Amino acid sequence: MSLIFILLGTFFLLAFLGVPIAISLGVASGIGMLTAGVSVSGIAQRMFAGVDSFSYLAIPMFMLAGKLMEYGGISARIVQVAKILCAKVRGGLAITSIVACSFFAALSGSAPATVSAIGGIMYPEMLKDGYDEEFAGGMISVAGNLGPLIPPSILMVTIGVCTGVSISDMFLGGIVIGILLAAVFCLTAYVICRRRNYGGSGQTYSSKEKWRIFWSAMPALGMPIIILGGIYSGLFTPTEAAAIAVFYGIIVSAFVYRNMGMKDFLHVLSASASSTASILFLVANAHIFSYLLSSEQIPQKLAILMTSLTTNPTIIMFLIMIVLLIAGCFLDNAVAVILLTPIFVNVVQAMNIDICYFGVFLVFVLAIGQVTPPVGLCLFVACDIGKVSIEKVSREVLPYVGGLIVTAILLVLFPPEIGTWLPSLTKMA
């Protein structure tokens, strides 16, 4: 147990001092490995083993695909389609932003990327239409939570690697819950807009304009159809789909929309490489951390402890939900997934809970932490876009967080049907 005290003590001390999480994990894990008598070369080998998975190739590819969308004019055209769909609805621009985030999330798989891309476009438009800046920032920050849920999802790829569960099945489960979440966000935004008398977008479109916008957006809308259709039809794996997404994004951005020159492409490559390096460095360090926890049988001991308290799967899921809600407030989603998945998977298996359902549930509950301080990455991105204080934006996200928690409770009370019925249908077919 002394190893665990050294490991956790070092990690929390460094994190408290403000050291980046990835480095805190690496230093704590390195000290733990040296304490256990592992050589420096052994530490490097263990780090390499942590990222030595074919499925992880999807991460840099989907990162690159998301950047191509942002800089290649694909996301802008998707937003135009969303505006047409919601133009005449009360609070139309707010609902437009949520719909646009749903489309973008289906291609980027990243919550911060979704907030940054859609927020940069929609935030100024909402201010022009009379929306309060704190409402606009709060609404966009919570809409970005669709990123990790609607496939392709980088977090689901990571969970699939950790548990061995089908990534395609989790993607399908994420579609159902992502649509449910989008509906909850739209309803909440609509109610708030009616109470505060926010109008529609104030913009009308002629039939000719609608046809022109839809026609222009066809190549952009073809991206999720090709990717998801290819995965679920069995033509290619999620990793192969990521590579195809990049190829398709380059063709559409450079040759169809002609929004991307060589300078823009080099910037996209640089930004994607930087984001990928950060994620994989985190994964490598977290793998050592998880390995040390497993060597001390912490996951097994926790599973025994929780199952000794109760044998009711519903109560177990409620306990896990509380832990995830707390963890999401303090840990980045990627960190939480890598650290907690190996721990809780033993508990879930002992309760005969569907692993695919649990993977989707894990991503959903942790996503709530993206809009709750002190970490709240989406919250900070939205504040940076609108130059609004975090205190004001935090108040605006409370109704949405309430909706998120209610949805999480429903997922606990009605498992696993909500998250697994669509994957089961594909298997029956």
Describe this structure in words.
With 429 residues, the protein is an all-alpha fold. The chain has one domain. The protein is 80% helix and 0% strand. Helix 13 (262-295) packs across helix 16 (333-350). The radius of gyration is 22 Å and the shape is globular.
What layout of secondary structure does this protein have?
Elements: H1 2-16, H2 21-35, H3 40-51, H4 58-71, H5 74-86, H6 92-108, H7 111-128, H8 133-143, H9 154-163, H10 167-196, H11 207-232, H12 238-256, H13 262-295, H14 298-309, H15 313-330, H16 333-350, H17 355-368, H18 377-386, H19 390-413, H20 417-428
Helix pairs in contact: 1-2, 2-13, 3-13, 4-12, 4-13, 5-6, 5-11, 6-7, 6-8, 6-10, 7-8, 7-18, 8-18, 8-19, 9-16, 9-17, 10-17, 10-19, 10-20, 11-12, 13-16, 14-16, 15-16, 15-17, 15-19, 16-17, 17-19, 17-20
Descriptive labels:
20 helices; 429 residues; globular
Q: Given the helix and strand composition, which structural class is it?
A: mainly alpha
What is the 3D shape? globular
What's the helix count?
A: 20
Biggest pleated sheet: none
Taking all Cα atoms into account, the compactness measure Rg is: 22 Å
What is the total number of structural domains? 1
The mean pLDDT is: 77
Order of helices and strands: HHHHHHHHHHHHHHHHHHHH
End-to-end C-alpha gap: 50 Å
Helix percent band? over 70%
How much of the sequence is in beta strands?
under 5%
Note poorly predicted spans.
Answer: none
Would you report the number of β strands?
Answer: 0
